[in-house]
Specification:
The structure holds two protein chains of two kinds. Helix content of chain A is 40%, strand content 25%. By secondary structure, chain A is an alpha/beta fold. Helix content of chain B is 24%, strand content 28%. Chain B is built from six helices and seven strands, in the order βαβαβαβαβαββα. The chains are: A alpha/beta, B alpha/beta. The structure holds iron/sulfur cluster.
């Protein structure tokens, strides 16, 4: 099969556009979840918070003010078809250039520091965190998912034991959500990775937030998602952590085969500003 | 209870605030977050003068997105206050009266709130676009090199916050999940 040439400039432009777009307008799935959740809330402060968040989305879109001031660290997933040949330069530099232009031209906050200890701001929100996957075909799927750190900081990886089973997974999710509480700007979106290795579980949980579904998922994941979501919403944390029925909008679980000795569970906490959007090139 | 108050708050204003109160603030406040707190705290530790006057001050834990032309500020919602816990007791002991942020505080901070007759408000996290519309002016006071983390002085009008920790030892977050 012939290789398809794709200029890295095309990828760079897509990254730029997606960074800007998603910081001003949340994807429909999250907007719908927020709208539905608002109907279920009964606490006074909780209703007020949910109304505020919905009004905020309208103002953000109409007046071109980012939904949240934490416009995130740019996480970019590249699913690259194996018949693609990139031309015109380095793909990594192209992605970072897209982030640099998106955050600059889009009036987005520059929230990345050069070194975790010395902490000098890079000034342009680069580098991005890039995840590459090689898939079949001759297309490139670019998913941009800027991640805010109020919620990222509350994320956890638990190395459970095989004997902990389904209850262990549930316990891990509920523990992470309870500990996150008001810090993660509830209502939250919860991404969960079960299986693989330590780092694979974390990656699966991030993909779950970005709407990338693992092909390994079994039917139990759907049931567990619903069950855990109701338990989270029974916690009382509520919108803004001020009390109420709506603590999370969604729980998405991704799985992967794992070792005979292990049951890794990663819980990636996000807020309702769960930004993810994609382009196929 | 809903209240409309002018900054700086008086002793009496603070005395009457209770957890769960919805308050609209008008007046001036400082904006500072992690990196600025670290610098100010280090100056305090060395016994040096600070570039801002903490007495009766209000600090909003926030790092805005860049302002578009013709606007005072970009998106401007609260950041997690928990990260300021290491510094906040010293700030309160030095005269700061109001903290605005989101999220849980340590026991040391909660104790310092009571000891100093102060208050911790939460603003709605994730509502940065809407909150920015209550901000009428913004100027950098110091640490411009910190970019989004520079210390600013902003003027707000009817800026909405909720009392999470009051001077009587009340803790709204703890009440919700008991
Ligand atoms: S947790 Fe989400 S809503 Fe809250 S400040 Fe961070 S990005 Fe914004």
């Amino acid at each position: 099969m012939a290789l398809r040439e794709i200029s890295v400039k095309e990828i760079s432009d897509a990254v730029r556009d997606l960074c800007i777009k998603i910081n001003y307008e949340l994807s429909d799935d999250m907007q719908d979840l927020l709208k539905e959740a608002a109907k279920k809330e009964t606490s006074e402060l909780g209703c007020k918070v949910l109304e505020t968040l919905q009004e905020n989305l309208v103002v953000a879109r109409e007046e071109q003010i980012p939904i949240c001031q934490d416009t995130g660290m740019a996480v970019v997933f590249l699913e690259v078809g194996q018949d693609v040949h990139f031309v015109d330069g380095s793909i990594e530099e192209a992605v970072n250039d897209g982030v640099r232009r998106g955050y600059g031209e889009g009036f987005l906050r520059k929230s990345v520091v050069e070194d975790p200890i010395e902490r000098t701001n890079t000034g342009d929100n680069t580098p991005a965190v890039i995840h590459y996957t090689i898939v079949s075909g001759d297309k490139v799927k670019v998913t941009v998912s800027p991640k805010g750190f109020g919620s990222e900081n509350m994320s956890r990886v638990f190395m459970k034991k095989p004997a902990d089973g389904m209850e262990g997974v549930k316990d891990a999710i509920l523990t992470a959500v309870r500990d996150a509480g008001p810090n993660a700007c509830p209502p939250m979106a919860v991404g969960v990775g079960v299986g693989g290795t330590f780092e694979k579980a974390a990656e699966l949980s991030k993909e779950a937030l970005a709407g990338i579904v693992s092909p390994y998922n079994r039917s139990w994941t759907d049931e567990l998602e619903q069950e855990v979501l109701s338990e989270i919403n029974a916690s009382g944390i509520g919108p803004g952590g001020l009390g109420g029925k709506v603590t999370a909008l969604s729980v998405n679980i991704n799985t992967y085969p794992t070792h005979i000795a292990g049951l890794p569970v990663a819980v990636n906490i996000c807020c309702h500003v769960n930004r993810h959007c994609r382009a196929v090139i | 209870m809903e209240k409309h108050l002018t900054l700086p708050l008086s002793e009496n204003d603070i005395e009457e605030l209770q957890i769960g109160d919805f308050v609209y603030l008008t007046g001036e406040m400082f904006v500072a977050r992690d990196a600025a707190h670290k610098r100010l705290y280090e100056l305090m530790q060395q016994g040096k003068a600070l570039p801002i006057d903490l007495k009766d001050s209000c600090i909003y834990y926030m790092g805005p997105s860049p302002a578009r032309e013709g606007r005072p500020i970009g998106s401007a919602g609260p950041t997690t206050a928990t990260r300021m816990d290491k510094y906040a007791p010293a700030f309160l002991d030095a005269g700061q009266k109001i903290m605005i942020g989101k999220g849980k505080r340590s026991k040391e901070v909660m104790d310092a709130v009571v000891r100093n007759h102060a208050v911790y408000f939460a603003a709605v996290g994730g509502a940065g676009a809407l909150l920015s519309k209550c901000i009428t002016s913004s100027e950098i006071v110091c640490y411009e090199d910190l970019g989004a983390e520079a210390v600013r002085r902003i003027s707000v009008e009817e800026f909405p916050v909720i009392v999470v920790a009051d001077c009587h030892g009340g803790d709204l977050y703890a009440r919700q999940t008991q």
